[in-house]
Design goal:
The protein has no helices and 7 strands. The protein is mainly β. It has one domain. The strands form 2 sheets. Strands 1-2-3-4-7 form a 5-stranded mixed sheet, with no helix packed on it. It has a two-stranded antiparallel sheet with strand order 5-6. Strand 5 and strand 6 form a beta hairpin. It is globular and about 35 Å long. The two termini are about 25 Å apart.
Length: about 100
């Protein structure tokens, strides 16, 4: 792994608004983590759905701060609230 330590402050990371009341701030991408992990901060309105997809270049971790999220990782479906952490390995379909 060629990654070095990195700290991303709250105001850092490119942001985009993908739809009303939905925003995404990229925090860590595979390129800066030696291809190990990606992380982003996202605010989503109730009822938002993600397409079933996978990543080939990095793993993904999600941590729920508020609200409730339904995760589908492979064939497993789990509903989690604040404090829930999910790990989605590269190459495994998830939504």
């Amino acid at each position: 792994m060629d990654a070095q330590g990195i700290v991303v402050l709250p105001e850092q990371g490119p942001e985009s608004n993908t739809s009303p009341r939905r925003s995404v701030a990229l925090k860590l991408l595979g390129g800066v983590t030696g291809g190990s992990i990606m992380m982003f901060e996202e605010t989503v309105p109730v009822g938002t759905k993600s397409t079933f997809h996978l990543h080939l270049d990095s793993d993904e971790v999600a941590y729920i701060l508020s609200g409730e999220v339904t995760f589908k990782i492979g064939d497993d479906v789990t509903v989690g609230g604040p404090g829930t952490c999910a790990f989605m390995p590269r190459g495994v379909p998830h939504a």
